[in-house]
Amino acid sequence: MNIIVCMKWIPDTSEADLTVAAGAKDIKKDDLDHDINDWDRFAVEEAVQIKEKVGGKVTVVCVAPEDSEETLRECLARGADEAFQVWSDEMEGGDGYCAASILAKFIKNRDFDLVLTGTLAEDDGAGQVGGMLAAMLDIPSSTLVSKIEIHDKKASFLRELEGGLYESVETDIPCLISVATGLNEPRFVSIRAVRKVASIDIPNMGIEELGMDAGQVGQAGARLVIEEVSLPPEGEGAEIIAGKPEESAARLAEILKEKGALG
Amino acid sequence: MIKNIYVIAEQRKGSLRDITWEAVAAGKKLATDLGAELTCVLLCGKGGLIAEQLAGEVPKVLLVENPVFESTNSEAVISTLKELIKPQGSYLVVMGASNSTLDFAPGLSVALDAALATDCFSLEVKDGRLLASRQIYSYKINSVVSFKNSDRVVLTLRAGSFQFSPAGEAKGTITNEPCPIDESKLRKRFIKYVEAEKGDVDVASADIIVSIGRGIGDEPDLEMFQSLADTMGGVLACSRPIVDKNLLPKYHQVGTSGIEVKPKVYLALGISGAFQHLGGIKGSPLLIAVNKDARAPIFRVANYGIVGDLNEVVPALEEKIKSLKG
Fold it and tell me: Labelling B289: which of A10, A51, A135, B307 has CA 20 to 30 A away?
């Protein structure tokens, strides 16, 4: 079973204070830590678990500049067999459609059975690359997937719907599966595991190696144009109860009592 | 210039999902603003009744009936919509953003050679140009996007962003279209629906909910939160990351993918306020947020907020509640 995992390298914005960069086309990213997109970490783990069960090879690919190498190495330490960094300067400013086109070029000439991705990335929150990529590769795809079982050229799994409902689905292999978070427990990566993969070469591939031209990537290849990004208006929002923790907690308890929320 | 707007209806088990009406609302507005014709497309097993519901709101309904559409099989949906829509050459395709459309909208955009903007919370036509607003970077930043080629666009719309109540007065036409796909050739097959495991805590009907999220940290003191919930006479619930980390079972999870709740009080502890979570909270409860990140989106929707450390605020809150309760 040859499994290709598409991993996205993103700024960690979940608890950071964000500011809009000059020109209002993006946020300031210099001070932000970058990491593996959380959803993709589950995809890497799932790929390695499938390999451990049925045998095969796990390849991780990331469309991102040089600084992403550390996260690719983390994927190797997590059990992936090889990792590729795909980047040319021309790729800067691309959208999800560009990313899918680049990944399709990378995957097309490889021998693969499964492509795994996370369903969403926390930066764009679009959930689009998996489905686009599958359409470009002409293979079936599914999102929000858990409980994957592989048996003889078929994959069966659950897809998450709304309100605690799931659908049980089966697809032929090759296929693309975009996983849900929580479908496994990503393993702890020890320092020893990282040392073990320290010497593995992580090749870089650019647009020439992929057989693409500059017009297909970056802003030139994008289908969306970012007009403006902004911090949402503060608006109404919550009444913030200020003070030391015990003071604000006490005030909150009184508010709960006034509102009849303490029974 | 776009002449055709297609709203894709979403049904499950033979009933229209509410988000369809929001997509109809957005589609109608865009049809007016762009001077385009509005068509609603319904793919389902047997669709007579819901097709009539839709025809009460839009001028034209295309109905494709086939047993394969009893579920939303993305492969079948993409091929069918491609056959129906692509020959028009130029189109704007609009649908709700849901776990079902997430499965086919990206593939559909490639099949239709169209641009895609997902999970849009606002749409605008300015000087004849379509602009869509989305949220990026952990839902903390608003982004307005336009389309390089606005002749072919697919949009999915965030639930709760486009208001509409069906009036049933449109008297639209219903056209039955033959199903263009060969079911036996599909590489993806729906097997059955599966209900999530039910637990011993009934979060759905609780009046008071203490809910925890990612912000409780990696080694949280769950007892502390359970104890607060007990003191308040409520139940302990959570957002997705807590279930992902196996800290609480799935039947505690509030959100669009989890349980819908309708409490009187919702105390959100360390919950950032992603819309998937907020989407599960109905009936405008007294919403209180405690979070160490002053920029957390939850503070934009909460009634009251405390910016602080949960390990300090929560025990102090419980103690004060105990003394007030006597």
Answer: A10
